[in-house]
Amino acid sequence: MHLVDSIAYFTIIDYVIFALLLVASMAIGLYYAFTGGRQRTTQEFMYADRSMKCLPLSLSLMATFQSAVAIIGTPAEVYANGTQYWFIGCSYILGLLIPAHIFIPLFYRLHLTSVYQYLELRFCKAVRICGTVTFIFQMVIYMGVGIYTPALALNAVTGFHLWGAVLATGLVCTLYTALGGLKAVVWTDVFQTVVMFTGQLAVIIVGVHQAGGLSDAWVKVRDGGRISGIDLNPDPTVRHTFWTLGVGGVFLMLSLYGVNQAQVQRYLSSRTEKEAVMSCYMVFPCLQVALMLSCLMGLVMYACYGNNSPLEQQYITSKDQMVLYFVMDMLQNFPGLPGLFVACLFSASLSTISSAFNSLATVTMVSTFSAGFHFWMNSSFKEPPFITFIFKNVVFRFKAALSIFGMVGGPLLGLFCLGIFFPCANSIGAVIGLAAGLVMSFWVGIGGFLSRMPSSVQVLPLNSTNTVPAASGNITGPAVIDAASRPVGLNGLYSLSYMWYSALNSSTVVLIGLVISFMTGKKHGPEELLIVLYTYTEERNQKTQLDSQKPSNSSART
Ligand SMILES: CC(C)(CO)[C@@H](O)C(=O)NCCC(=O)O
Ligand code: NA
């Protein structure tokens, strides 16, 4: 799968820049392996000695769920359908305020080691195990998507062996994560975020220049109808509207920034609760910059190609290659810049995979080495054609990543909400609620996937007329659902926008959880339980604060 021959391949400078990224990431890992407490305690390895400051944490929080999938997927989406997707930025407000003022204070004061410990304190061990298993499931699938995307990119640009790139990423990532612990993960995230932003910015600047300058570029995207107005269509089956993005997106954000172990671990590693809240606030501008850069790249791509997409000209064979083709096309006279962009893609994914590794290591309390090793082994299996199909299509991957957050993260969010906001909920309700949420999620998610399958395969030739969603709610990305067939009944449920998955599935858990709790009756004063928990942990916090002033000799790293 190579780009056409007219496209310049990597030069030596490009390889050097790309290698520098991997070397620098390794170096940061090694630095934290040999400084500070040398990663000898779980406190340091998992929680960076609870000494992190807000700026690196916020960049790291942003980087965790920003992988190459978003960097390639968002521009492809904006190129095809305009800037409607940008409205997801609205969901960041509540999606970060709620974690900052509800989840962080609770988790921070409970002095948890893993966020799933809350489930044990609030319900029982069984609920914790169910929650943990669900989380592992979510992160492993997500990592698969995240690791595959930049490998595919490198393969397209350089012909570098696909699974070789997957293994190289896995290996580098595993090493620095295992050696340097959370400190290394956070500081590589910071470095990788800088590389990510620089790479995107470079492409945008060169692209605007090629399109004839800012004002020309603006006129082209405006006349091409790529600047979308706010779409207030209340129909929940329309993929991207203000409601699906701005409201459905809040639930997506809550599942990621409120209750996901990778993020909670970062909040918990802050020096103070205030600093944790601040870092959550700081994620807002960081996420907005990331969103802006990827949307701008889509617009610049449109300004350069208009409706003569390289796909239509058959220079490339899938939407997947759109951004890469654009990058190679624009940057071929700038040696080093293609390398910078590939480094940008790998940065985005390394920062995601390392966070996932570290959080998985924490919840399972097995070493990162073994988590990495298992993943590495799994990823070297030959994948079935079905999976290849999903992975090879970027629009699918983009949707897949966000769908996983909603399908598996959503029920988890529901489980936590059930515990936090409903004192009357009991353990049986929690377990059955979670199960119901997962069933609902896979029913709707897979049902939706299958019912859209035929139309998703076909590639829609871009026509020269305005295809902005506002004018045509039936445009669903690359696939067009027949305008006449407004889905009814089960099909209506199946065509629910994937942006609502998190909201639907978390509500299912809460509702079913409450019903079962009422049915199974007698609760042992759970209202008091939280108060007891608070007082208990207040005392323990004071004790640990005293303890931490003494030199620690807690258990060795697992
Ligand atoms: C999850 C959000 C929406 C958070 O802003 C964004 O980072 C995104 O679109 N992520 C896609 C998945 C990924 O890049 O791995
Ligand atoms: Na990332």
TrEMBL record:
The chain crosses the membrane at residues 12-34, 54-73, 85-108, 129-148, 160-182, 194-212, 241-259, 280-303, 323-345, 357-376, 396-421, 428-450, 498-519. GO terms for molecular function: monoatomic ion transmembrane transporter activity; symporter activity. It is found in: Cell membrane. PROSITE patterns: NA_SOLUT_SYMP_1, NA_SOLUT_SYMP_3. It comes from the Eukaryota. GO terms for cellular component: plasma membrane. GO terms for biological process: inorganic ion transmembrane transport; sodium ion transport. Keywords: Cell membrane, Glycoprotein, Ion transport, Membrane, Sodium, Sodium transport, Transmembrane, Transmembrane helix, Transport. It catalyses: iodide(out) + 2 Na(+)(out) = iodide(in) + 2 Na(+)(in). It holds the Pfam family SSF. InterPro entries: Na/Glc_symporter_sf, Na/solute_symporter, Na/solute_symporter_CS, Sodium:Solute_Symporter_SSF. The keyword Cell membrane applies. The keyword Endoplasmic reticulum does not apply. It is a multi-pass membrane protein. Gene3D superfamilies: Sodium/glucose cotransporter. Belongs to the sodium:solute symporter (SSF) (TC 2.A.21) family. This is Solute carrier family 5 member 6. It comes from Cyprinus carpio.
